[in-house]
Amino acid sequence: MSRSAHPAGPRHADVLPEGHYSAPPADLNALDPKVWAHTVTRDQDGVVSVGGIEVTRLAEEFGTPAYFVDEADFRARARAWRTAFGHDADVFYAGKAFLSRAVVRWLHEEGLNLDVCSGGELATALSAGMPADRIAFHGNNKSAQEIERAIEAGVGRIVLDSFQEIVRVAHIASSLGKRQRVQIRVTVGVEAHTHEFIATAHEDQKFGIPLAGGQAAEAVRRALQLDGLELIGIHSHIGSQIFDMSGFEVAAHRVVGLLKDIRDEHGVELPEIDLGGGLGIAYTSDDDPRDPHEIAKALTEIVTRECESAKLRTPRISVEPGRAIVGPTAFTLYEVGTIKPLDALRTYVSVDGGMSDNIRTALYDAEYSVSLVSRTSDAEPMLVRVVGKHCESGDIVVKDAFLPADLAPGDLIAVPATGAYCRSMASNYNHVLRPPVVAVNDGEARVIVRRETEEDLLRLDVG
Ligand code: LLP
């Protein structure tokens, strides 16, 4: 295949190199509703819009790269989780997926609670008016200051992650003259089917106290003896981007088993269990995520069944979805820069962002899809790798995808499903400025996290 015959690189399935992709999609202009936010559509003129505003207008007004969040979709997903679990359960949105004051207000208005895991997340939540008693405080190494601040603020629960922390939180609470509501995070020993870096319930990792060897039971024994603590429940989080419900079933089974042991040993029935977050979303058309109602039904049924057979009162269940609420509601808009066809390999399409606004591809080998959004094209599909502007060859945003072969510098392309763990894990690598987050709703767009400026960077640089 000579370059002159195919100046834009290889396009046909029979010459494609190895990769994650399947065949090129039948229609490159189509937008799969599985991966795009609810209000994303392609207009008559071929331009994609979100919340009723065309991306070309958004790019003009807010620049690129930028994250655009479909506020109506965010609220709808938050509400769907809330209603799926009903009044006998609590939904704590996991702020680590993406947090800003606007998001805190949306959650508050939609009746969700919030899980935070650092002083910074706690400060954001409190400053946006989330009632402290609806906040859960997590983390495997909370500092004394963070613990003190959380207790003083009156957080609804602190999730204890180690033996040392049991003592530390009890001590700080007592010294403040308070009794803190706590859960103990246990490691249930489940292999979640996900990337190793985001699996958290197998034994050889840093989170939680293992059920194995009676360690969790010992943690409960100690917590029950300390005046500064009110032990309200057991917590388990098995990992992230999980589609298979069986891991949650095993976790629920083991957590209820511990509740039963606690009842037998101490005569105490703990009133709550938290089954964490981790439900997967569609990054590409190949992913099939579950509906929150289906998840709620499955989790509630298993906990109820296990409790009935152990003759326990069914505890109040809580869950902590992050990605499943915010992930699908946003996309990143980029402008195409240089285009570099490599013979018999693929075409490298460089965009004006990269690993600083989406580290997930480099870190977890994550898969994304991408579409041309500023126009339609009838050109044939071209195999591309969308890369950023950073000084690393691992600076890949979308590893393998198809874009039309007439793609040109200045076109706008968008990567869907970037609402979770993209802005929240963004960096300033190469002193690239972090993009803004713009909420779009019903024909209006407003910045909820502004674009970083060079002054922001220089302000931190002392001397
Ligand atoms: N609860 C706890 C205790 C967690 O540690 C996490 C995520 C969640 C809830 C929310 O999980 P989600 O529903 O969002 O999957 N940076 C990685 C994900 C790390 C998840 C950390 N903990 C990624 O980009 O895939």
Automatic annotation (TrEMBL):
Xref: InterPro entries: Ala_racemase/Decarboxylase_C, DAP_deCOOHase_LysA, De-COase2_C, De-COase2_CS, De-COase2_N, De-COase2_pyr-phos_BS, Orn/DAP/Arg_de-COase, PLP-binding_barrel
Pathway: Amino-acid biosynthesis; L-lysine biosynthesis via DAP pathway; L-lysine from DL-2,6-diaminopimelate: step 1/1
Pfam families hit by this protein: Orn_Arg_deC_N, Orn_DAP_Arg_deC
GO BP: lysine biosynthetic process via diaminopimelate
CDD domains the UniProt entry points to: PLPDE_III_DapDC (cd06828)
Cofactor needs: pyridoxal 5'-phosphate
Active site: 391
Annotated ranges, domain Orn/DAP/Arg decarboxylase 2 C-terminal: 333-419
Record's catalysed reaction(s): meso-2,6-diaminopimelate + H(+) = L-lysine + CO2
Keywords of the record: Amino-acid biosynthesis, Decarboxylase, Lyase, Lysine biosynthesis, Pyridoxal phosphate
EC number: 4.1.1.20
Sites where the protein binds pyridoxal 5'-phosphate: 278, 320-323, 421
Gene3D superfamilies: Alanine racemase (3.20.20.10), Lyase, Ornithine Decarboxylase, Chain A, domain 1 (2.40.37.10)
Amino acids binding substrate: 323, 360, 364, 392, 421
Modified residues (N6-(pyridoxal phosphate)lysine): 96
Any GO molecular function: pyridoxal phosphate binding
Subunit structure: Homodimer.
Family affiliation: Belongs to the Orn/Lys/Arg decarboxylase class-II family. LysA subfamily.
Protein name in UniProt: Diaminopimelate decarboxylase
Organism for this UniProt entry: Streptomyces sp. R41
Lineage: Bacteria, Bacillati, Actinomycetota, Actinomycetes, Kitasatosporales
